[in-house]
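Notebook entry, structure prediction.
Reason for the run: the old model in the group folder had no record of what sequence produced it. Starting over properly, with the input documented here first.
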Amino acid sequence: MIKQIHLKQCDSTQDILKEQLSAGVSETVLVSTDRQVKGRGRGTHSWDDLPGSLCFSFSLTPHPVNSLSSLEVSLLVLEYFKEKGKTLLLKWPNDLWSSENKKCGGVLLQGSKDIYLAGIGLNLFSDNPQYGGIYEDKNTFDKKTLAAEIAEYILSHRIKDRESLQKRWLASCGHLNARVEISEGETHKKGIFKGIGEYGEAIVETDNGLEQFFNGSLRLSDDSLGDGV
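New structure, fully documented this time:
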């Protein structure tokens, strides 16, 4: 059973969710909003609030392999929309792309070993050419209902089996065998993205052979653009 709190506007759904859990709420909590004005992404990144944005956060237990949690949630968001007839792609480690290889969503997980706060930001449609949209048309969405549907789908379709998760994630990856650049701290590497390891790490074939990256950000190399990956 999910306890949903829907707000017309808030700074961050993750902050509201933290307050709820700190107050000792034991049930699963979902915080959704019509407009989020100070959303956060990974690291120092922020989430821009666009007219077609959907932002919500909910509590969940982590994957049995803790470091696979964000990949699992990203995959399940993609599979929810796949059932609605929409084609999305995954970008390591936690982004969703539209079919035009533009970012249209992201997942941010934080918490402890027992409970995670999953923050999800999606562009249902986009007026900004820098970003992609899940839908081509500017439909009117009931954000409260849609947030609840996606959260319930994720919670009822958890993927405990590591091999199944890896296989399904790779099948929807938008840059498998593509030339990529990964930045991890002061390290910047270029190579071919070959897949993910048992802990969700990126496996990239560089001039030094196969290397593993457990954190960092990934982008397609400029010479990969137009390759149709």
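Summary: The CA atoms of residues 54 and 122 lie 5 Å apart.
The old model has been moved to the deprecated folder.
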